[in-house]
Design brief:
The protein has about 190 residues and is mostly helical. Among the domains are: about 45 residues, no CATH class; about 70 residues, no CATH class. The protein contains seven helices and three strands. It has a three-stranded mixed sheet with strand order 1-2-3, covered by helices on one side. Helix 1 runs antiparallel to helix 2. The longest helix has 14 residues. It is flat. The N and C termini lie far apart (about 110 Å).
Length: about 190
């Protein structure tokens, strides 16, 4: 709401930006009665670890630098009509590494957990696994193929099935006939 109020106060120069901002879902902020600047409102909404998982889209470098100082806030900006997601800030990367290190359990602790489970009888027994029952399948697909015709001992097909070839007889014109035609044409 604070961003929309700020865009209204800036007048006709940012009327298009105001129309675009109105299309999106408006989130309620804590500044109902006394609106603050848009950047201050956005920063107040992402405090305390960004619980609503907001993305911040801005062209303002001051706001972008302040957002990069907070861990877990993705930053969007526009370059030549293309929306670009900025790489994670060093603060975000450090936060993720710290979180991963806290989640890892050392190997000796894992072994002691397994031993304690065995003492209490909570460990899964490997011998009690169920085996899958084999089910009857269909016929062998190779047995369903059509049988091939047998060939003779020579490795050739039987004579009855052999295709007959026709010989083509050429009608050759004798050289003398050609010469007589040429003489008639000359006369």
């Amino acid at each position: 709401r604070c961003v929309l109020k700020e865009l209204e106060s800036l007048g006709k120069a940012l009327y298009g930006a105001k129309l675009i901002a109105q299309r999106f879902q408006v989130r309620n902020c804590s500044h109902h009665k006394d609106p603050v600047s848009g950047s201050a409102c956005l920063l107040s909404m992402i405090e305390e670890g960004n619980p609503h998982h907001f993305f911040i889209a801005t062209q303002d470098q001051d706001l972008a630098n302040k957002v990069k100082k907070k861990a877990g806030v993705p930053l969007l900006f526009i370059i030549q009509n293309t929306m670009v997601l900025d790489k994670p800030s060093p603060k975000s990367l450090a936060f993720v590494q710290k979180l991963q290190m806290n989640q890892l359990v050392p190997e000796h602790q894992k072994q002691s957990i397994v031993q304690l489970k065995e003492k209490e009888g909570l460990a899964k027994q490997e011998g009690a696994k169920r085996r899958k029952r084999k089910r009857a399948g269909g016929p062998n697909p190779l047995s369903c193929l059509k049988k091939k015709k047998k060939k003779t001992q020579d490795g050739q097909e039987p004579a009855a099935e052999k295709k007959k070839r026709r010989k083509r007889n050429r009608n050759r014109v004798k050289a003398e006939a050609v010469q007589s035609v040429q003489k008639n044409e000359e006369e």
